[in-house]
């Protein structure tokens, strides 16, 4: 038992000292709070995860769990105010980005780490053509001429399988369908060949059939380019096919991290178990859907102990007193539950 | 696009006829003898009366008068004043002055108003922001004649920095203060609209995307943010240009500028009905065309607007 009791600080990828660890991108004990008129909301409370080249990490969680805010902090596009980073590091190739100069950080954006947003209609500038917005990357960041940039942009549109890429170049975002627009968004984010791609709920705004196409495309491009990908989602169905590892977030913390296979087979946190149980199943047709009782906690007033305890079917007195640390369970698994062992070892 | 333009131009016809008839009817229906006081104490000689009555069909109904006036107008004939001067000549001498003043006022509105709006929109709640908010409120609240007379007295009379009135040459340097006075209220509105628009769009998703692409801040603000925020400002500037070109009775009066505004005021006071109608016809036409230009500009700025 004692060999699994490793402190939270030495979760995967972190050695606590900020020394390079050979990881591509690691978030280490990140803390972010939103200072609003009504009070301080602790949105991220010590998030630690990492992603390496060629692997896909899925970050799973409900709205408000802090998964998007973590991504925004990595990209350096957190709205400040109200958001403030109060602790932790975000290391890219071992260097802490939070202490870099704005200019150094800017250079990493797009080229080192790129991001795809959820709602492609509002994320693309409505008054410029899609082609302009892709070619802009080549012109401004690579200093290419207008005609060369256009050629490259059309190539990118082609790569994301937009039919008639040449003709589509001079269309405006509102002239694209939702799926095509998200493809264009992907083309734009991949233009500078980034090492890490953060996809923030890339399929939430799309039809189910289109969702699958976009996920396939993302997976394909990720493998081809050997990128590290962080896939942020609340959709368990989306995750299974694409992700290598899954990190589950709750109330601004990672509550479980595991291999996709392990996590689906045997979740080591009651919250993950609840999520898996709430997937509608064909063989339970007609029955009431299973849900996790209660609501996510108010981030201005997170309950003492384990943040999940008021909703947890397994909660014991200890859960209301002690915050469970993220414990390594071996095999790259980690769980922040006092009863992780019992959960894993049950039949 | 071509069909839209044609439709809009055709729409101008009834508006033009309606407005000009209204003004014609109002001006010529003022009770009283149109010749009263025109020829000194003794009254006008009968042959002059007969000539003018014939020229303007004064013994016919208003419809016939208007129709014959429009017929002449379409042939480029604005008619003559009671004194026998060509009305087109009056418009030709005074309108360029009004245009010059309007252009200066518009430039001041655009440069100062837009500049202040952008700076404060990007940095809200700072010292500059509060300064701009208070000073624009000041400019909006004060009537033009107060600003005009105060500046004329301070700069022109007390400190002697400028000439209190504008000379006949209408040099641009002389027009800066009158232009500022004329454009002051609109400038304040433009600053406020630009400020709100910039502040609103600054947090827009596409601005965040532009930042996430690693574009330099200059480009994020100067290209992505500005282009979107300018749409409401340009509309405001365009409609304002239409209004400015209608002449500025008060400003032209204060600074002694021989513009169209002063001319129309003088014609109303002296009951020069034909001159009033002639000038108003020109102003209506300019205003309608400016409105059309703004609508077209609006679409050029925002591709989501389509003309079908």
From TrEMBL, chain B:
<keyword id="KW-1133">Transmembrane helix</keyword>
<protein>
    <submittedName>
        <fullName>ABC transporter permease</fullName>
    </submittedName>
</protein>
<feature type="domain" description="ABC transmembrane type-1">
    <location>
        <begin position="95"/>
        <end position="298"/>
    </location>
</feature>
<feature type="transmembrane region" description="Helical">
    <location>
        <begin position="101"/>
        <end position="119"/>
    </location>
</feature>
<dbReference type="InterPro" id="IPR000515">
    <property type="entry name" value="MetI-like"/>
</dbReference>
<feature type="transmembrane region" description="Helical">
    <location>
        <begin position="175"/>
        <end position="194"/>
    </location>
</feature>
<keyword id="KW-0472">Membrane</keyword>
<keyword id="KW-0812">Transmembrane</keyword>
<dbReference type="GO" id="GO:0005886">
    <property type="term" value="C:plasma membrane"/>
</dbReference>
<dbReference type="InterPro" id="IPR045621">
    <property type="entry name" value="BPD_transp_1_N"/>
</dbReference>
<dbReference type="Pfam" id="PF00528">
    <property type="entry name" value="BPD_transp_1"/>
</dbReference>
<comment type="similarity">
    <text>Belongs to the binding-protein-dependent transport system permease family.</text>
</comment>
<dbReference type="InterPro" id="IPR035906">
    <property type="entry name" value="MetI-like_sf"/>
</dbReference>
<dbReference type="Pfam" id="PF19300">
    <property type="entry name" value="BPD_transp_1_N"/>
</dbReference>
<keyword id="KW-0813">Transport</keyword>
<feature type="transmembrane region" description="Helical">
    <location>
        <begin position="9"/>
        <end position="28"/>
    </location>
</feature>
<dbReference type="GO" id="GO:0055085">
    <property type="term" value="P:transmembrane transport"/>
</dbReference>
<keyword id="KW-1003">Cell membrane</keyword>
<feature type="transmembrane region" description="Helical">
    <location>
        <begin position="131"/>
        <end position="155"/>
    </location>
</feature>
<feature type="transmembrane region" description="Helical">
    <location>
        <begin position="276"/>
        <end position="301"/>
    </location>
</feature>
